[in-house]
Records
---
Amino acid sequence: MSHLPSRRHVLRSTAGVVALPFLPSLGFRRFAAAAAAAPPARRLVFLGFGWGVTEDFWYPDIKTPGPDYALPPGLAPLDRHKADFTIVQGLWNKYSNEGHWGSTMWLTGANRYAQPGQNFHNSVSADQVAASQIGLHTRFASLQFNYGEKEGDSGHGPGLSMAWDVRGKPVGGQNGPLAAYHRLFSADGTPVEKQRALLAERRSVLDAVLDNARYLQKGLSTTDQQKLDEYFEGIRDIETRLAKDEQWIGVPQPQAPLAEPKQPVSGRDEIGLMYDIIVAAFQTDSSRVITYRQPVASLLTSLDIKVHPHDMSHYHGSRNEKLDASQRRDLAQTELFAGFLDRLKAASEPEGTTLFDHTTVVFGSNIRTGHELTNCPTVIAGRGAGVKLGQNLVVPKNTPLCNAWLTLLKGSGVDVDRHGDSTGTISDLVA
């Protein structure tokens, strides 16, 4: 063949393989061979939890950096994956000063007081920076998954998810496994022509709003001009989303590779289901950038822990029920994370590699423990960003957390010079 079809052409022309991996065993050997000519897509997933960790139980000894460190008890369930993840110690978001916000500024590194006269300001999150480039060819540029309705005190802080757009505004997502499942795999029953008409109507309204905004632009003060510039950023974001909606009109949702989640589900079972759905999203190439804001309160309930999650995070002192709750929480979260890595390693790519080989996974929080915000707990796994794995990496104290995000973005093929308060990449993190 002089011209082999791209994956996009296949998606548009053959409904039977829409947004699914190329499967030679199902008879699509020619298309599978074409796909294998290009390397599989790189993917990024950020798994965030609130309330931090049990400090003496979770962190390796900083005096034994490198590959020959002893895995601490809180990370013991990851032993089988020890060569495939790196713990980075010494990172922080220097502007963060709110001990109960585990994810609000975790991926942004923003100064909440950066705007005069405002007591809250945020900036774009690392996942959205990635989505603007590596999310161009999937149905969803990014996906934002959150905990379900039964979650109580999460320790995450304000925001609709962990994602924030270029204006520093929260990006909503799906709450719980059922909503996430239907977002990915439930078909839109609206006729195609009506979808196009609704899209045209939204474009018409957007054009009118944009014309009015441009008319108002003349003679504005500097402050008002800045506000209007932010407004234009929002318009551009809407235009991008409309263009993507138009691109996928008439393209059927992929067939779900897993059953619809049964309700009700919460806590430990909820997290496990969400991990299954994230893997399914990657397998069907529905998205390549995902954030998941995990529950903590309902996780404790599912472990039959009666301690309030806020009280648990203040476990200081001698051994007591708060400390026990904190350690049990750590173990449960780590066991679930280890299972997620198992799933990524078991999911094959067309050319014989696995999802793990092309995915970067971040597991962590903006909170270390209690109200402590330095040395943010950070585990990085997967080979998608060319990270040096199997390490206890101790960076200079108070290295910007955004240096890690910049390193992962660049390693994932995102063209970006800086992120948040970054001062550069972390050379010791690069393989």
---
Amino acid sequence: MHPRLKAYYSARIDYLSHVIDEAIPEAFNAQLLETALKTSGHSIALDLIDTAVYQPMRQYIKVKGKRFRPLLSCLFIEGYGKEPELFKPILAIAEIIHSCSLILDDIADASLLRRGQPCAHQLYGIPRAANASSAMTFFVFRLLQRNQMPLSGRQRLKLHQTLLWEHYITSLGSALDLGWAKEKRNEIPDDIYIQHILFRSSSYTYRHAAAIGAIAAGADDRDLDLIFQYSSLLGVAFQFIDDIFNLKPGLPSWGKTIGEDITEGKRSPLVLHTVKEASQEDRSRLLEILDGNVTDQEVLQEAIGILEKYDAFAAVRKKAKTFIDKACSYIQRTKVSEDYKLLLIAFAQYVVERRI
């Protein structure tokens, strides 16, 4: 991480964690119920709600990640000269949306671990975890309706429109991703593959967080379009690097099951590159493993070896860097203050330079 960004991150991380914990405290309470329902006096068993939906909601809030989504929202709020303290619900929403997307992502992938801990659906079961993700999705709109944020009617409308679109478009992108694995498609045009990442991964990784921070801070439509491009490309690069880490983690603290994408038969950029470049024998063997729901580590390592043989990891990392270069060119054209442009460029570069 660039020293400038590291200093900013160190200065903000405790504050961001506090804001998130304030919005989503340890236990469900009457105040949260009032926020959710916009009225008080309901006879609802708070302890049952806490167990049945709230604790699954909090699982990935509790098992903390790096808080990069609220950090990105904060960068844009400050980059336009506004105080984050005035927009605390926005900072919390950036993390809540990311967390609710991870619950569904882990269910779809039949994942076992997230951040080194059992996944939400492993702890609470698929029905409760899925319901919790849905509840989180709609809870963010209740947070938006709080009146203490200094937002115009136009900004509030823009925030609602943006989040609704992001939620919907993520579902379309996920459908494509799941469909290609299910139908065992091995030749997907590059532009179509990138489009599915722009729908799916870009949304819940960085685009929603960048957009809500910029909207709350008062960015004009031209800047919002540029920020959309910046954060979309960040999401593509992130997904490319994440696909690499799924098979070859940068550090032992990866926190997920290694080789999960191969077990699920994912047609990742690594696979698509190798399918194009490999000999018929290697291609057939790789696809056989991908379609075999394999969990044996020896066989998974055999598949990784085939990918390495055709330089898939280097090729995908190189592509990720080209997306970051394009992303940085977009942020340069915004009205964000110069110091924060440098931080946002450093943030983008970290996406491909990170080890985890």
---
Amino acid sequence: MTCDLLIENAAVLTVDPAWNLYEPGFLAVRGDSIAATGPMAERRAWEAGTTVDAAGMLLMPGFVNVHTHIPMAAFRGACEDLDDRLRKYIFPLEARLVDRDLVYRASRFCLVEMAASGTTCFADMYYFEDEVARAAREAGLRCVLGETVVDFPAPDCPEPYGGLEYGLRFISDWTGDPLVKACLAPHAPYTVDPEHLRAVRRESEARGLPVLMHIAETTPEHERYSVSHGSVLRYLDSEGALYPGLVGAHMIYLDPSDIELAAARGLSVAHCPASNAKGGRPICPASDLAAAGVSLGLATDGPLSGNGMDMQGILGLYPKLQKVRAGNRGAVPAREAVRAATLGGAEALGLGAVTGSLEPGKKADMILVDPDSFSMQPVYDWYSAAAYAMRPSDVAATYVGGRLVWDRTGMKGFDQAEAMADIRRIADRCRGTIAELTGGAP
């Protein structure tokens, strides 16, 4: 049998339903999909156009980052530790500075960090999302991109709710792209009224698309809807705004009835432990959601909210915080954490049949990890090593659809030095506005 790419002699961590781990093993790629994987004893049946000897390395599914705002890399580190940061500082900052060029160039910059740390698929919601799509296509990463719908004038739409029309054009323009799935992203329950939430649902279900939204994230939101409806989720349910395909980011303020409701309505959850913790918010009942049958993926949030865009930090923090919350060391085993960062994220985005595990027929979205580092050695268990010891610098190569998109020589789709120069120019442009808004604070 023939294939285009064959990776051999690796420890192959598949995250398949049987938790198969081949050590040593191989993986064969034909076109953009996985043709076979298994122990090295079965490798002799294959001839490849290109063979990679990955002796001593770990081959695993690429990370799926279920909630980001990658153009906000332009503002990373700005307005930190300030009260009411979003409304007082970030919304005004975006209104003054965000344009097509910033979105495109800041996205390219952020994609370098993501690819270099092993992310192969991500979901994003922001403005000018077609520019994020353009950058992601150049980088070669798989993505679900949601155009923001909000009740005030936005950088790409001068009229409230203009993001709905913009988003429908975006969806039309990118339909059929092999890497980019365009969709709608109502910002939050407190910035999108019920009429427009229902319109988003109607348009999305007609096209078979996911919907991305912040849900039950902030204290004021929680207090407002707890008074009126008992909880944020019960408010949304009363308006017909909970349904399969809706991906709720954060989902912090939930009681047991909310968790049952999320499972009954078929929601997915993007769990963002780092940005939640940085915001001083309660620990999301993520393991309870997963136990209830809710599709749960992990996410960094945007580079302004969580700062780091590597999934390694999130993968380690998720089980640790759930253990704290439960008071139980065994609350989230390492392999379940690895699954949440890979296949769980793919399932949350409706891509579980496409990516997230190393199985024949799925796209060859995978990373090679070099464990020969002071952070990872010695390795006794690959799941534990991946969950608790792996660092971004341990990633040696990132593949999407069998195509090498990054290795230690740099990005393959564009010049990453140019992306760094771009972000420095953008930062110079932003400094004055940030100082003005914060009164000179960082």
---
Amino acid sequence: MNPDNILVTGANGQIGTVLTEALRAAYGTDRVLATDIRMAQAPTGPFAILDACDGAALEALVRRWRITQIYHLAAILSARGEENPLWAWNLNMTSWLNVLNISRENGIAKVYYPSSIAVFGPDAAKEKTPQNAVLIPTTVYGISKVAGENWANYYYHKYGLDVRSLRYPGIIGYQSEPGGGTTDYAVHIYHHAVKGEPYECFLSAHTALPMLYMPDAIRATLELMEAPAQRLSVRTSYNLAGMSFTPAEVAASIQKYLPDFQIYYQPDARQQIADSWPASIDDSCARRDWGWKPAYDLDAMTRDMLRHLAEHYGRSIAL
């Protein structure tokens, strides 16, 4: 069997940065081509400038590199998308349809598409939102992700293209800054705490949202992509859960190690988006089909975030 050659779009993003390195560790540095619309600050392997909305440029890379798998991470996220909805829709959908068509026409073996809890709206159950909940989102990001899930399902059933997808909750990681999402507070809060600064939160104290620590998100992605196709029963996007917490709860977790940390609340337009999303997710389909199980809870994540950020900022924290 020939080895896989992998292309990652949006590789400079919060998830893309970490996922690219994980793929290189698994498949070999020279077999993973990272792409983005801007050059990476310090590329650790093959990198190409790519606007995924340029189908001809994408196809040229696929053919030149003899790509067999595509991880399509390029997208405009929830909060940023609301600033310019038509731009966000066009970018998200044009790039995704390019990936699907080019994959079908060039014999790509597997395609990965990240979806989001943004697909859920106020009509979905707030607690333990089920896999097959009603999907009527209130943001252009959520609308584009619902459409993207349905295109993934269509290309699988119509053309046999092996598209796999996860509905990510809020992703928290120390490796890079987030990219304009409604759950970004849960990353920013740790940076402020380690730097000894108070944090003004753009969500209210008791807004519970589903979250996932970056190592769990990356592991879930790789486990799904490595699972035998016959075990997968969901071809739209799998619900994925790790933990659920509020800003007040994450602040309290931080204060166990940094008792002087202070948080203030000044909800903005992102509060309305958060209020339309679930507080917790039922991911029993993922657990059943391919053995998903998160490794981190809130306190374990807090200790790891504080440890890494303390190293980054040259601070000392007793953990």
